[in-house]
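#data-curation
PF: Archiving a pair of folding outputs for the training set. Convention for this channel: one message per protein, sequence first, structure tokens after, nothing in between. First:
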Amino acid sequence: MWTLSGFSDEISPDLAEQASLLGELGLSYLEFRSAWGTNVLDLDDEQLTRAKHLLDAHGLRVSSIGSPIGKIFLDEDFEAHLDRARHAVDVAHRFDAPYIRVFSFFMRPGTDPDHARDEVLRRMRALADVAERGGVVLLHENEKEIYGDIPRRCVDLLESVGSRHLRAAWDAANFVQVGVRPFTEGYAALRPHLEYVQIKDAHLVDGEVCAAGRGDGEVAETVRALREDGFDGFFSLEPHLSQAHSLGGFSGPELFTEAWQAFTALLKEEGIEHR
């Protein structure tokens, strides 16, 4: 049975409001990216304690820490960022989260990502080492404008680092926004590395984000293939239906609910059970 989660900060900046709607929708997991307008890695000790108590009170668990690790330019200080990754591992332990979302570094305008390959791999290996020591798994998201934005470079990154602590988070909308038809052009190559699925869709013509199944993200085709090959894992709603920016997005309660309804309707149509 598949498990639904979601970037609940797209509901509201207030964690209590996030938890309330998740409960109404029947979700028992969230992807923890921010609370009270502050990124999860910037919450102080008191805020982290408050967040843990609140989530426990609502019976909510954390599927992944929605960190911004790797969302810096390749020429920015990596040692400080590595310390931030170590902190992300500590936060994951605090919330019993098995996963931490990461990225493979922004490219400056005019940079050929393939020319940056060696430095990207060096940094990603270092991050994977941090994850291995911490006993967590990093989920590489195929964000646009980073090294791993297209299937070929995602596969190269994952195979070259070659760590079971660095796996793929599949984001169909992000692939669409770089001109890729996700299932047709990426699924077969990435499936051996695929650990986690983020749910949003987009239109090829303009990159506009939409609810699952309403764009060119080939969500239904991907879902069918995952069912057929026995995938068992998390599907995390990241709707971006109101706002989208480099560090996240926002939908609000109504649009988040619409995104949940669209995806669960798709699962029902395919005869797939979820919790």
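PF: Second:
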Amino acid sequence: MTIVRGEPDATQKPVSATEATAEVPGVLPEALTGFIGYLLRRVFAQFTTYADGPEDDSRDFLVLDALTGGDWVSQLDLAERLGINRTIMVGVIDRLESRGQVLRTRNPDNRRQYILSLTDQGRAAVETGRRAVAERDARLTAALSAEQVGRLNTLLARLLPEGSQELVQGTEHLVEQAHHRLRRLGDEKLAGTGLRVRHYGPLSVLAASGPCPQQRLAQELAITGPATSQLVDELVEGGMVVRGRDPHDRRRHALELTELGHARLKEVAEAVDLLAADVAELLGPGGEDELRALLVQLLEPAHPGVSEAAGRLV
């Protein structure tokens, strides 16, 4: 079965459109290329660039495909297993039911739950969707051999919760789900701090570069100007960064870490290291190096030199 784009936890702030499309081609920051989570995010962004249909269609197919294994006795449980926000799940089921692709009935053993069943129209939609997914995966993984794709999928599945692994097939969707899970795991390690794993990149670049114009920060991180502005605003609001004058050009502003920013960088760096340790454990002996090599092979066309950079950090 196939799974598509997951949702952030209901307790977390949703990913904005700016952040979701933040990454751009270019040289990647070498200090970050050793982290599986970072490489996975870049591959996820690269795949998202080639999106060829509405996100609602992807979610709809996800649910239909999951139901091919039989009736699901809890709509809420299915939403959690598939990483779909429970409110969004209601809309998905409403659409599928209106098309005659899913039948929703009250669970006689628990009137608060709905049993979901796939109809003949739903099965036909799944067959059509599976062909489209296979064609898209082939385009996205053209840089890899069939054997490498199989190995990549095996390793990515290890990063998912055990209860979801049997519902997930297809490289693009494994990448998406693994990316969302690692993001959640990392942010959970920073709970209560006001920090997110995404803050590690800009904080570490500013710590290494000293006063840095915002445009240069965007180039160093290989992300768009709007995405950089969003990150900088968060860091300035949190007292971690100040906008001063560029010592090399007094006509423009430069960004600089505050004393608090240096302290918070240590906190987020510790969380990133803990996440990397979790990833290594999930992947097993040799799995981390193998997955890293496959991810950089996918990234190399858009980010020349990433293979060498990642290799130097291993």
